[in-house]
Amino acid sequence: MAPFDPERERAILDATMELLSEVGYDRMSIDQIAKRAKASKATIYRRWQGKPELVVDVICRRFDMDGPEGADTGSLRGDLAAVFRGLCETVERKHTLIIGLSSTLLSHQELARTLRAHLHARDFDAVREPVERAVKRRELAGPVDARRLFTIAEALVWHRMIFAGPPFGPEFVAESVDGVLMPLVTAWSTA
Amino acid sequence: MAPFDPERERAILDATMELLSEVGYDRMSIDQIAKRAKASKATIYRRWQGKPELVVDVICRRFDMDGPEGADTGSLRGDLAAVFRGLCETVERKHTLIIGLSSTLLSHQELARTLRAHLHARDFDAVREPVERAVKRRELAGPVDARRLFTIAEALVWHRMIFAGPPFGPEFVAESVDGVLMPLVTAWSTA
Amino acid sequence: MAPFDPERERAILDATMELLSEVGYDRMSIDQIAKRAKASKATIYRRWQGKPELVVDVICRRFDMDGPEGADTGSLRGDLAAVFRGLCETVERKHTLIIGLSSTLLSHQELARTLRAHLHARDFDAVREPVERAVKRRELAGPVDARRLFTIAEALVWHRMIFAGPPFGPEFVAESVDGVLMPLVTAWSTA
Amino acid sequence: MAPFDPERERAILDATMELLSEVGYDRMSIDQIAKRAKASKATIYRRWQGKPELVVDVICRRFDMDGPEGADTGSLRGDLAAVFRGLCETVERKHTLIIGLSSTLLSHQELARTLRAHLHARDFDAVREPVERAVKRRELAGPVDARRLFTIAEALVWHRMIFAGPPFGPEFVAESVDGVLMPLVTAWSTA
DNA sequence: GCCTAATCGAGACGGTACGTCGAGTCTTATT
DNA sequence: AATAAGACTCGACGTACCGTCTCGATTAGGC
């Protein structure tokens, strides 16, 4: 058992996951995690600095975006709407965790960096292909920076998250795609 | 001394302010505040429900937006840039507090509403006038929903705040105004 | 409630007493005491430095010798035997606590002093009167230092305690009184 | 390496000895011993039940009385004083260990027996010869139970140990021998 | 000018969670 | 087969805040 036992790690991460969704970040205690994982607190603290680090690890390992799968709907608008809906789901799924962590992240910059790296990353690809297809289809006049477009989408979702909270209805998706993303991408492609 | 002593209120709010900037929201304790304000914890809890409420009060009273004062620069682009810069400053100034609070807000919806009310409120006006002036000047082809525009601006700033953190350089302002706000407002006005 | 609440103190001391006799010093935890006294650990640590100090306090307040009351039996031998039996009882009653504490006392000299002060103190008187009566009755040729005599008795009991443990049978009392105390006091009085 | 390696045993006992004198029984941990002896905890627990057993073993092997060597001084008083001084030294040397162990011994009767066996054992002989010589010299009127005498001496030293602590000055030796042992042995021999 | 009542400081209280430590067990790789 | 290394469970430790509470002392305005 000389190296860290991966089985214990699993058990602890699993217990953490469960408790996160049952009681939330704030009301979840290390003792609870230990008890549920049939682990000792020492084992937890041997691997992670504290609760925030543990939860960030959970997020990174378990909550990673599954790629919103830019399904090809035939039109740019349809593709963007699909991606946007995926983004809403993802943010909605993680937001409790991330917001629960946020105050801690202020004083743990390194932790914040780690978490950020896992926040966009993969999703970005999901928007590049629809745009490229649209260019090929002549739906767009010229090439467009997909990264920038994705950033705007992300900003819209998080803003909604912060100032209104879930759920994200279809009217929010429609308004965002038709009122912001499409006008923008069109404007950019003709610039 | 029959009514609540307003002097104590001041002392408590001041102490809270100081501690917030010295140690941050999380590591600030009610005991610290009481000691620094030479007040008793009872006095604090008599006026506020708890730490979050107290801090929200501090934010509302002390941190309120000074109105980014959409100075008339003669062009829509200049006006929007001015507003956007003001928004950056405001968010930068408050973000620590707001993020510190955020996890609490998840379980205190009423508190969240109070805070939100103080988050945009006044700023919104600052963007309506530039837009109206631009319409008058024929810089814009038609009327535009200033609220929507302001929301986008806010979303961009908060997104930057969350995923990169301060400071917000001039290139961020330029990119946002030229790459997003101007194209959007133009597109909307011709729709 | 400004000063320390004496009722809580009682409850804590009582709980400590009970647990000491139920599980012994070593296996008694502060958490147990707190739970049984319906007190919080903080309250305990506010008054006492730690477990040893608490237990010493218990000993001092609750276990104090009730004065073995040298009942006047008419003869010096009878009186000494009575005192000696009382001493046996007292030591037997306290020995578990004291031995439980002893290792701690090594590194807490001040605590050790406090405890020692409560170990003989009162008992000493119990042996002075029998001796004085014996002198009056001409049973003893001259005056005798009662303190010294008591010390010998105490030494005998503790030695028995350490090297054999309880119980102390009547043959131990007889042997001690007839074989040691009486010969000694006789020798001293004729010196 | 099939059988238990005696070299490891030595290393462990040595490390235990060192630590006992450096930090005392209570603050010495098995991990420390293991680290210092470059041994593994498993190796320690394979040989000894636990810390108390290990320390008792150390005491038995390393701290055994070297026989206070009842040097023949020509007089019973001189011989007894010599033995008594030796006893003081021995007890002083071991007392930290024994007191450190004492609380554990309460719940480990077998261990207590083992330790007791090593506490008097040899010393007893040291007092028999002086007494026999004194009888031969006609210094004593009749035979005396040396064991009983030794017990009294031991009781005096331990009592002093417990209620005052070291060091044992010459006045303690003088008072004990002249005030207690000599009167007693005289009284016994004429009985 | 006094009295009654509200408010104050101080800080003890029951709780809950923290992060650390030591004991004793068990696993793996080495010798 | 016994070892060194060290991870493991368990449970106690002592600390820090939380939000509630009970004290006297202090200060108001109504008499």
From TrEMBL, chains A, B, C, D:
The keyword Cell membrane does not apply. The keyword Manganese does not apply. Coiled coil: none annotated. GO terms for molecular function: DNA-binding transcription factor activity; transcription cis-regulatory region binding. It comes from the Bacteria. Pfam families: TetR_C_11 (PF16859), TetR_N (PF00440). Residues 6-66 form the HTH tetR-type domain. This is AcrR family transcriptional regulator. Keywords: DNA-binding, Transcription, Transcription regulation. Residues 29-48 bind DNA. PROSITE patterns: HTH_TETR_1 (PS01081), HTH_TETR_2 (PS50977).
